[in-house]
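Go through this chain for my students:
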Amino acid sequence: MEKTLIVITGPTGVGKTQVAIEVAQRLQCHIISADSRQIYRDIPIATAAPTARQLALVPHHLVGFKALNESYNAWQFEQDVMALLPSLWQESDYAVLCGGSMMYVDAVCNGIDDMPSVPPEVRTAVDAQLVTQGLACLLQELERLDPAYFATVDRRNVHRVKHAVEMCRATGKPFSSMRTGQRKERPFKVVKVGLTLERPLLFHRINSRVDAMMQAGLEEEARRTYPLRTLNSLNTVGLKEMYAVFDGTMDMPTAIERIKKNTRVYAKKQLTWFRRDAQLLWMQPHECLERLPL
């Protein structure tokens, strides 16, 4: 039987984790996380990582396997998933890839260009410049070193801007020249499911989840990681707003409302990205088990 990777994706808060568990239980297969923040240990509340109970229901992979100070990217994720799948295929004809990190999902489904690693000293220098001189300085450098990529990059996305500058410095070549965009053929079938809800319901779920995260101890989790707040792994919604409270630049009620708003904005950004993918089969969470084309 042909091996099949079932991708469960969609905006944050839509219910991907529970649906993936239900699908994996039905097919008796494993789940691979495609979340660029859930890969890190020590921040399970902020990243809405699967709970201990959920992890016990179905074997999960690539959850909480990196330290906060370790770097990781979509290319490494592709390598890890492609190395993992052969062992999963020995147990089942199916595997589930679950997550809303758009670049991670694309890396597995379509492939990503091979990129040289960035020397630690280059990454350290760029990090230091970001802290001391701000994002505007890196944007000016990117515009000078790679005007083609500068013209297309989301200039508010600190991670992408920083990574492009790092690659330019490390290789002496424009980052855009290393991006071929060629799709890789996969030796397995890919079924891509996009979960969706009516916008008011999705936003209600997001707001409720933020309240639940606060009750679960988000503030305490943020306080534990506050000394490491400059790490890229901690540059995420939920923690950034808590850090602002600790810095004295925001009060707690405002921070909670800001987390809700920023999460809603991220969900809309995800939907805009995913809507461009003609391969996605859109369905509501409760429909997935019945409509999944297997």
